[in-house]
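Q: Joint fold for the lines below.
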Amino acid sequence: MIENIFGIAGTALNAQLVRMNATASNLANAGTVAGTEQEAFRAKRLVFKALVDKESTNAGAPYIGGVKVDKIVDDPTPTRKMYMPGNPLADADGYVFGSNVSEVTEMVDMMAAARAYQNNVEVVNTARELMMRTLEVIKA
Amino acid sequence: MSLFDNAFGIHEHALPLRNKRMQMISENIANADTPHFKAKDLDFAKVLDAQRSAPMQSTHVSHFRIGALPNADGVFYRTPFNASADGNTVELTVEQARYGKSAGDYQATLSFLENRVSGIRKALRGE
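A: Joint structure:
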């Protein structure tokens, strides 16, 4: 019974960790430029999905009610077009295309992911303490 | 063994329910960032009453079966204080508070069980 809580919180820890990975990747690529608009780096955004039935979990593992990363989508905000004729990647008109990563947004998202991660760690801690106490009932 | 038949009273029914409620709240916390996720909760008193009292029998053809009514398992969707744009109804602070309270409830039930166990043990020892 109580193991389910560990499983559910574990799926959330996993999902939030992937989200922090995506944020790290976005921040690392904030300064990259590309020669065309299609090649420009776009910030990655995660879409979470609730695990509601056995099909969505790993063959009926006790994770029903947990969460998973459903898909990773590109941020739709437009990329930055910059005039840099000296850049070797510049196109015929002297423009390069920077990423659409906003550092402020990424920092906020990272803090939100870290908070969500901490929340689930606390869930695990509380469940673990209660499990240990339940085991001690027999000693009473 | 009449000593052990009812040794733990209501608490042996209460403990799994406390556990179930904690599990549901942990599901809510896990899905705090999932779009369109609806927070769920367990009506503890209702489920416990349903488990303890004898279920009503349908003795006539026009009687409704109570057990078949929707939400007979006590699970209900939480109404959020503030709606969010992505359709998610989990409010993390509220969930944290409820999780803390239900963890306390679980500990209370555990304490009652511990008292019962130590009482029985004392009776068996005859001290």
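Q: Anything notable?
A: The interface with chain B takes residues 1-2, 4-5, 8-9, 11-12, 15-16, 19, 47-50, 65-67, 112, 116, 119-120, 122-123, 126-127, 130, 133-134, 136-138, 140 of chain A (CB under 8 Å). The CA atoms of residues 120 and 126 of chain A lie 10 Å apart.
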